[in-house]
Amino acid sequence: MLAIARELRDIMRRTGDIEVIMTRDADVFVPLPTRVTIARAAGADMLISLHADAVAEGRAGGATVYTLAAEASDLAAAALAE
Length: 82
Known about the structure:
Helix content: 25-40%
Shape: globular
Order of helices and strands: HHH
Number of helices: 3
Largest sheet: none
Distance between the termini: 28 Å
Structural class: mainly alpha
């Protein structure tokens, strides 16, 4: 995923209109609250979090998109939005 994130970063930077801040540039885990802190400190307009899930057998496909809603779906989401 880090390689894909770097590729996306490069594509976005080439537009000349988008400043990209990476929350990590090495193959290490950064917890979501830390990523949010980094984004807020940078004054980010958007946070993109890329993930790759795994499947033991068969073939997986699709995508999931999470967005900020007026009402939180659970306590963790409420705390993060706050």
